[in-house]
Recover the amino acids of this structure.
């Protein structure tokens, strides 16, 4: 056994190949997305994939980002922390990430839909907003 | 702080008071769905249930423990601890987190037990020493045993947080000088849910509380009293290194070519095949990584008697199984190996308990 080295330069450094940790998750996920997109296209059926529940190997998350790319729309919601919504390079495939007020990710998902549910105005909010608008009109008078 | 003081009873009223929009609440429920390992599309249904949910009183008792479980929960950010604790539950007693101290603290516990008798959730972290009348751990002059038995009487359910409360944990390890036992050995007439782990994953603690709030009952449990949604599969089943196991590619030391290539850590003592937990997907530190991703095998901390199950660095198969033949056959038999090893591990645990094996420097 050789004596232990005290010099950092003696420790070999290997550059990790881009695909070194791909264990097949990305291929499987893209297949699922394609199958679900086909259903949206055929009969409007929507779907969500919770990315936090998948056992990604190091680097695979970034590979998925690269594979899906970014399309025409990106939106930001401010509601108990930020939310980022990006339509990927494939229309109907949305990447939705929710953050809390501290900026930590609390949910990360792929949503396959014409429009992500969270973007739509909610009936309860529409109703409350209408009341506020009417109150403002009353205050203004004739 | 109780419901009347806060001026609301249900979460819906709480949100209305704070002017939180339905969209923001839906987002919160999406995070809750993720937390509870439910389909993300169930957020709307969760919202409907939660809006009517009453905040349960929670009494948290810390016994023979290291406070690691509380440390773990306070690092939870899914959702934030503040929203979980102050909006969704009424944490009426917790040594470490409450502002009150001394007689005031004990009075708040007694008041909550009286006011919410039969309805409060009792959370316990730490094992309970029973030797010599339980004198080895006392709070305000009373033994843990006494406090547990008193608080359990009025509890709707008990949540045993951490491996100490669930299975005895490290205090229970041989030679167990204090006679430490888990909650389930002392309380037989209440539903008990075990959230094991040393410490447990913070999101799992929060997820179980969220499940209770949403559905008004405890989640489905496995044969060791753990929620199936988090402990239903082994670390091995969900490990991203599993394909390497199936291919028979193993790291032989922590700095060899196999380790650098991210191959399976089975031969370095990884207890993933016999350990049920959600580390491989939920991960730690805000989803950063988990032990195997950091290059170290699983210690098996969420399983009973993990501390007495022999060295962390001895393969599960040794010495009752031949690792070479397992590696060669693994590609064919796949998951069956884990079952066989589970049996091997149980035998090994028995042996280790009898002999109280110790980790040696050489093994490191």
């Amino acid at each position: 056994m050789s004596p232990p080295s005290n010099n950092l330069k003696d420790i070999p450094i290997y550059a990790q190949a881009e695909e070194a940790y791909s264990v097949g998750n990305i291929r499987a996920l893209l297949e699922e997305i394609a199958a679900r997109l086909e259903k949206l296209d055929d009969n409007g059926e929507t779907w969500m994939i919770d990315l936090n529940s998948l056992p990604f190997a190091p680097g695979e998350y970034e590979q998925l980002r690269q594979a899906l790319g970014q399309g025409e729309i990106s939106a930001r919601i401010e509601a108990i922390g930020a939310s980022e919504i990006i339509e990927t390079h494939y229309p109907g495939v949305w990447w939705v990430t929710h953050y809390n007020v501290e900026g930590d990710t609390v949910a990360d998902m792929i949503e396959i839909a014409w429009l992500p549910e969270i973007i739509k105005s909610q009936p309860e909010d529409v109703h409350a907003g209408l009341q506020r608008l009417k109150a403002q009109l009353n205050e203004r008078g004739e | 702080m109780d419901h009347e003081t806060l001026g609301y009873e249900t979460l819906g009223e709480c949100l209305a008071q704070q002017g939180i929009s339905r969209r923001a609440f839906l987002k919160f429920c999406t995070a809750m769905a993720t937390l509870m390992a439910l389909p993300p599309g169930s957020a709307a249904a969760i919202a409907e249930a939660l809006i009517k949910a009453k905040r349960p009183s929670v009494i948290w008792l810390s016994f023979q423990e290291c406070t690691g479980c509380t440390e773990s929960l306070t690092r939870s950010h899914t959702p934030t601890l503040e929203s979980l604790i102050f909006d969704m539950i009424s944490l009426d007693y917790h040594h470490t987190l409450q502002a009150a101290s001394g007689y005031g603290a004990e009075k708040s516990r007694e008041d909550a037990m009286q006011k919410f008798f039969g309805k409060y959730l009792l959370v316990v972290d730490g094992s309970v020493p029973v030797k010599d009348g339980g004198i080895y751990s006392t709070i305000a002059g009373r033994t843990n045993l006494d406090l547990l038995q008193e608080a359990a009487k009025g509890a709707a359910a008990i949540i045993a947080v951490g491996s100490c409360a669930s299975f005895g944990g490290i205090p229970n390890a041989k030679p167990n000088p204090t006679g430490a036992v888990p909650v389930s050995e002392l309380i037989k007439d209440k539903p008990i849910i075990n959230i094991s782990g040393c410490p447990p994953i913070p999101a799992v603690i929060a997820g179980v509380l969220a499940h209770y709030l949403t559905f008004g009952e405890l989640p489905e449990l496995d044969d060791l009293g753990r929620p199936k949604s988090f402990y239903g599969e082994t670390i091995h089943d969900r490990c991203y290194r599993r394909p390497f196991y199936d291919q028979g590619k193993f790291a032989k030391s922590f700095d060899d070519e196999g380790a650098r290539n991210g191959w399976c850590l089975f031969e370095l003592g990884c207890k993933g095949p016999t350990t049920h937990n959600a580390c491989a997907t939920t991960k730690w530190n805000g989803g950063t990584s988990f032990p195997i991703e950091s290059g170290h095998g699983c210690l098996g901390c969420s399983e009973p008697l993990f501390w007495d199950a022999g060295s962390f660095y001895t393969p599960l198969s040794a010495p009752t199984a031949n690792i070479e033949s397992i590696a060669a056959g693994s590609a064919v038999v796949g998951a069956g190996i884990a079952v066989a090893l589970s049996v091997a591990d149980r035998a090994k645990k028995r042996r280790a308990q009898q002999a109280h094996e110790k980790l040696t420097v050489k093994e490191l």
Notes: Strands of chain B lie at 57-62, 90-94, 120-125, 128-129, 138-139, 142-143, 155-161, 180-181, 192-195. The mean pLDDT of chain B is 82.
